[in-house]
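Field log, afternoon session.

UNIT: design team B
ACTIVITY: writing a sequence onto a fixed backbone
BACKBONE:
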């Protein structure tokens, strides 16, 4: 029987697969207008990869540096799932919310300093609410500080093959030194799917 956590993760995985299919179908049906318009703009970066084969189906500025914003939370989730898989914590582990985490700007759950959240609920809060306070609390719990956690995130990115990504925080809140590429985020997406299929 699936837990609520695995049901949400399964639904997200199915949605990602459907999005990939939609991107491919949309690209095929509007190839004469949409794709050239995207490709002509340096403002945007995009990549579509077949998650099963690794084949690149479409790319535009895929290696250009961009600010990751809340996509940063994908790596925060990766680190959380990895810690749970390694037995350093479990879905019921209570993650404390510091004053610093509670003070993060929205989007957030609105925790007060001293409150806590279960690891499973923290994952759901990041996935469904993009909660900055929760992402920061997770980073502090796993890394000891958000700064140390960001270093761990960047090191993990390198091990996954994300050569052009640097993280500076767990949430994706603005930081001029935090950057990634569409290709690197695709690598992370595939790694999440492959390494944590049941999370």
């Amino acid at each position: 029987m699936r837990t609520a956590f695995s049901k949400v993760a399964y639904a997200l995985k199915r949605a990602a697969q459907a999005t990939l299919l939609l991107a491919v179908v949309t690209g095929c049906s509007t190839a004469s207008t949409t794709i050239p318009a995207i490709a002509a703009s340096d403002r945007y970066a995009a990549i579509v990869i077949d998650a099963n084969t690794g084949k690149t189906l479409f790319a535009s500025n895929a290696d250009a540096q961009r600010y990751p914003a809340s996509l940063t939370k994908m790596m925060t989730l990766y680190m959380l799932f990895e810690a749970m898989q390694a037995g350093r914590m479990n879905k019921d582990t209570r993650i404390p919310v510091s004053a610093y985490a509670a003070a993060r700007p929205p989007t957030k759950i609105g925790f007060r300093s001293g409150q806590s959240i279960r690891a499973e609920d923290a994952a759901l809060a990041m996935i469904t609410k993009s909660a900055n306070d929760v992402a920061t609390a997770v980073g502090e719990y796993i890394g000891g500080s958000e700064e140390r956690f960001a270093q761990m995130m960047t090191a993990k990115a390198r091990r996954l093959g994300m050569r052009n990504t640097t993280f500076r925080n767990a949430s994706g809140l603005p930081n001029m030194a935090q950057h990634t590429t569409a290709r690197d985020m695709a690598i992370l997406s595939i790694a999440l799917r492959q390494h944590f299929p049941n999370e």
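LOG NOTE: Confidence is low (pLDDT under 50) at residues 18-35.
NEXT ACTIVITY: expression trials, pending approval
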